Amino acid sequence: xxxxxxxxxxxxxxxxxxxxxxxxxxxxxxxxxxxxxxxxxxxxxxxxxxxxxxxxxxxxxxxxxxxxxxxxxxxxxxxxxxxxxxxxxxxxxxxxxxxxxxxxxxxxxxxxxxxxxxxxxxxxxxxxxxxxxxxxxxxxxxxxxxxxxxxxxxxxxxxxxxxxxxxxxxxxxxxxxxxxxxxxxxxxxxxxxxxxxxxxxxxxxxxxxxxxxxxxxxxxxxxxxxxxxxxxxxxxxxxxxxxxxxxxxxxxxxxxxxxxxxxxxxxxxxxxxxxxxxxxxxxxxxxxxxxxxxxxxxxxxxxxxxxxxxxxxxxxxxxxxxxxxxxxxxxxxxxxxxxxxxxxxxxxxxxxxxxxxxxxxxxxxxxxxxxxxxxxxxxxxxxx
Length: 384
Description:
By secondary structure, the chain is mainly α. The chain has one domain. Helix content is 66%, strand content 0%. The protein is built from 15 helices and no strands. α14 packs antiparallel against α15. The chain is globular and about 65 Å long. Residues 10-367 form the Acyltransferase domain. One of its GO terms (biological process) is polysaccharide biosynthetic process. InterPro entries: Acyl_transf_3_dom, Acyltransferase_3. GO terms for molecular function: acyltransferase activity, transferring groups other than amino-acyl groups.
């Protein structure tokens, strides 16, 4: 089997949308619980509704795979990499919506909070604003809680990683696998020592949030499918391994709270590692990478996420991730004002449906009327 040389990998938009949806599910109960009015069921004790962190790690692996693929392809075709054009492409894809969200949080949301009688966000201080402007959102917790702009921490991690990746690939192409593997090993050691510190300190929180190990797993995947070992893809995509890896993914998504504590020999210790934030960036990163490669490169994949519908949903996944906290905040604020006395089951269904619907609606409108303008401009800086 030959790895595709195109930058388009089928099915990945569908996976991207599913990951974004998991993040929304995980955060809906953050703002309203069965102890508030209107009361809804808090599903966070259930495994499937607590996969926000895993979904973000999937985004990291996917991003590392795609960005490294893009840069390697550019190097193969032109013999070099235009670092300047790479930075411009990243800015046009990430920065417009990123800074729009920051502007809405600091300038627009306080007005909406007064209109809908929402509680103010305590995480909108001047020092935090400076951190957001400097693309250091993963450091803003130092100056207070992160609520409306909480999702931006992962954007900061990616931008900080990609600040150095283009020059590294350009000048150290022959040593890339070693470099990425070294980053993973060093990061695991740092995670281990950070995990020993109780209570957590500013430094340990920053270390554990800096998920470079997950991004590097994706980077290694991009190298692998262009290496002399790519012939192994046929064997890796066999049905037994598909059942193994997709089975692990399914088990982690639906039983991440029960299997680690079940006391089952081998299984429980394994899933304790797979669900432990200190260590799981690498083993779950490998699972995510397998899913990415299988869905995008294997015609016999047992999971299919292609088609026009998934393509559209994948296009709005970045917006879903960025807007979902704000839309959930507003939806729940409206429910608290106008739907105080409805039954808990009705309130729960209504809350989840409205949060998902308006998150997707806002993300779609943003994509069509705002983001696409910059995406069209971004095409001018892509390589012929």
